[in-house]
Amino acid sequence: MGESIPIPIASNMINTATTEKITLRPKKRLTGTSDSPLTNKNRALAKLKTMNSSNRTKTNLKTNNVFTRYPQLYLVGSRALLIIVTVSLFLFLVKLGFWQLSRAEEKELWQSQLTTRQTNAPLSYVELLSLPQVEPLTGYRLTVTARPLAGQVFILDNQVFNGRVGYLAIQLMEVSPDKPWLLVELGFLPATADRATLPTIKPTTMVQSLTGRLYQKQSNPMSRALMAEPGWPKRIQNLNIDEMSELVNHPLAAAVLQPEQLKGIDLPHPWKPIPLSAQKHRGYALQWFSMAFAFAILVLFFIYSRKQRKNK
Fold first, then answer.
1. DSSP states of the chain as a string?
2. How far is residue 198's CA from residue 237's CA, in Å, rounded to a whole number?
3. Which residue of 43, 82, 97, 269 is 20 to 30 Å from 303, comparing CA positions?
4. Taken in order 122, 123, 125, 129, is the CA torsion positive or negative?
5. Is pTM, for the whole model, over 0.90?
6. Which one, of 158, 177, 178, lies nearest residue 168 by Cα?
């Protein structure tokens, strides 16, 4: 018989397959081993390249570079800004105080003018119309004979008298057919509980000889429009005489007459030509100066405390 062919053992086949697998498997890094300097350098360069490609990273690097290279410049700029803000705030408070003092002086001058006008003889209607339109007319006295225009009554909204909110009723009157009409104050009317319901007002209907004082309402810088509502009596929000003249399609005198006595009408007549007195403005000035003084004390105390901490 011929030679027998050896049959490979299964274990050898398994070992061979296992060896091949081990040979093909990638090598793992052993714990405790380190890469070569060249490998670390390549990784660092790749990471730096990625960071440099980001605009945000570039900005942060530049900013940090400024702070690290010029720390004194950054601190000096911060201190300068703090000093500018502190001094500006202090000067602003002081300026408000002096502004209130100047307003107090203006109110004193105004009060003296009102007193002088009250002691002078009353004007005639012709003299009133001849006065310059730019001159304030509050405080002048006037004597006139006027005929009421039936039904044409304005009620000025948002008025306060003796702690009550209400309206000021003003009626149109004719002095002469060829002259502007005159606005005559009928008096104060308390507001009703329902704002949609206007108070009842009975205008005068008889020709009267009137003597009283004139006034002009100060214009509101936030709102000067008449904002007239439909119907008569007509509720208005501001005493804008120019718009009232356009509304009635007739020229009007530039001031309102508050009569000393009005036949058939018994309503109170509020008189407050100067909204804030000189004493009020001086009180406000004292408040602003006090705030500036307190602010200065706080700043000085902060500086002193910081120096004390540095010396320790």
1. --PPPPPPPHHHHHHHHHHHHHHHSPPPPPTT----HHHHHHHHHHHHHHHHT-HHHHHHHHHHHHHHH-HHHHHHHHHHHHHHHHHHHHHHHHHHHHHHHHHHHHHHHHHHHHHHHHHSPPBPHHHHHHS-TTS--TT-EEEEEEEEEEEEEEEEEEEEETTEEEEEEEEEEES-TTS-EEEEEEEEEEPPSSTTSPPP-----S-EEEEEEEE-PPPPSS-----PPSSSSEEESS--HHHHHHHHTS-EEEEEEEES--TT--------SSSS-HHHHHHHHHHHHHHHHHHHHHHHHHHHHHHHHHH-
2. 14
3. 97
4. negative
5. no
6. 158
Model confidence pLDDT, tens digit, residues 246-285: 999 999 999 999 998 888 888 999 888 877 788 889 999 9
Measure Cα distances from 204 to 91, 152, 185, 197, 262 in Å: 56, 11, 11, 21, 8
Strands 252-259 and 181-190: parallel
Amino acid identity, position 57:
T
